[in-house]
# Entry
Amino acid sequence: MDTKPACGPQRDPDFFEEVDRLFAKYPEAADRYAVKCRRLELEILKIDFKKQVGVTRIEDGRIITEFLDRDKVARAHHACCEWPNDDDGLCSRICPE
# Structure
């Protein structure tokens, strides 16, 4: 059976070629960013990023992200650390500053 990978360069080679070119053009910025597959959030956990936001914390050497209703999240001492590719401009994940 020849199944297509869920994410990554084998799934979307043209996209990743463009990302590689962009990272090569901006090497300093490229060290700060990575492309992430959102399959777990969208297909497994069924997160609706218009209604929910990931809230990340560091605890005992682990990075923990919980998805909470946007209207219940206090943004104090947090900054956006994941941005979506859509027009609503909502942050997908907030992290400690």
Remarks:
- The radius of gyration is 16 Å.
- Residues 6 and 94 are 25 Å apart (CA to CA).
- DSSP finds three helices and four strands in the chain.
